[in-house]
Amino acid sequence: MTLSHDVAGDGPTIVLLHSTVCDRRMWDPQLPALTSAGYRVVRCDLRGFGDSPMPDRPYNNADDVADLLDELGVEQAAFVGASGGGRVAIEFAARMPQRTTALALLCTAVADHEPSERLRAFGDQEDALLEAGDVAGATELNVTAWVGPFADDATRDLVRRMQRHAFEVQLAPQEEEHGSVKHDVDLAAVTAPVLLVSGEHDFADFHDIAVRLNKQFAGSRHVHLDWAGHLPSMERPEELNPMLVDFLRETVPAR
């Protein structure tokens, strides 16, 4: 299955990988900034999000992204990943470093992180609501947890719609359940330059992840935003976009 996707602009390829609270629509505020800066932008929906259905066979997100790039004739790309999308970008960069030109990781997750008590409590509460059939309650829980205090109502509403849709797709009866295929990820194999962004109003886990990765990735840079929650690219794109474009121009100059 090919991931649902869209492509815009010309120049070096930038792949945008969404948070697992969202889908590729989360990147609407970045699309004009990146294309006008001289980049070709690929946005995709991971399986079970947006317009990509649940998998019909065992799958791996990083392999799905590699297959999509093969289909588009893209040999190398830079990645901008948010949260769970960052985790996918890290795996791609570790397993396929020759295809990865840069990584911008926004409040990224990472495969080997042990969640804090607060993050585990969130997960337990979400599970309880979904098991009780309260999809609306689980959706509101996610909006409250992940959207920062300075986001506007339109941003909250979009996150609400994206999360609700993801729940509906993922909870729909399936003929057969297919899990993801896990690969060992060696962070030392990542060779691309890395920008790490964390937010003051996010779960502390994601600041801790950024601090740890900044020590592990050679030549990386960590920026902590005092205004941001978990989704800074949506909450204040006017502040996030210049930072993102500057990093890409330094590492993957547009032609």
From TrEMBL:
<dbReference type="Pfam" id="PF00561">
    <property type="entry name" value="Abhydrolase_1"/>
</dbReference>
<dbReference type="InterPro" id="IPR029058">
    <property type="entry name" value="AB_hydrolase_fold"/>
</dbReference>
<dbReference type="GO" id="GO:0016787">
    <property type="term" value="F:hydrolase activity"/>
</dbReference>
<feature type="domain" description="AB hydrolase-1">
    <location>
        <begin position="12"/>
        <end position="237"/>
    </location>
</feature>
<keyword id="KW-0378">Hydrolase</keyword>
<dbReference type="InterPro" id="IPR000073">
    <property type="entry name" value="AB_hydrolase_1"/>
</dbReference>
<dbReference type="InterPro" id="IPR000639">
    <property type="entry name" value="Epox_hydrolase-like"/>
</dbReference>
<protein>
    <submittedName>
        <fullName>Alpha/beta fold hydrolase</fullName>
    </submittedName>
</protein>
<dbReference type="InterPro" id="IPR050266">
    <property type="entry name" value="AB_hydrolase_sf"/>
</dbReference>
